[in-house]
Specification:
43 residues, 2 helices, mainly alpha, 86% helix, single chain
């Protein structure tokens, strides 16, 4: 999961800096990723 997380993080950073509000986009994406991981773990 480390390699998947690192690649996802690099993708999030690239997309965040392409947005109007990098910090907000970055936090929003991290939140959605965390929710997906939680839902996946409880299946």
């Amino acid at each position: 999961m480390d390699s998947a997380e690192s690649s996802a993080t690099s993708g999030m950073v690239a997309r965040a800096f392409g947005g109007a509000h990098p910090y907000f986009s970055y936090n929003k994406e991290i939140l959605s990723i965390n929710i997906k991981f939680i839902l996946f773990n409880y299946r």
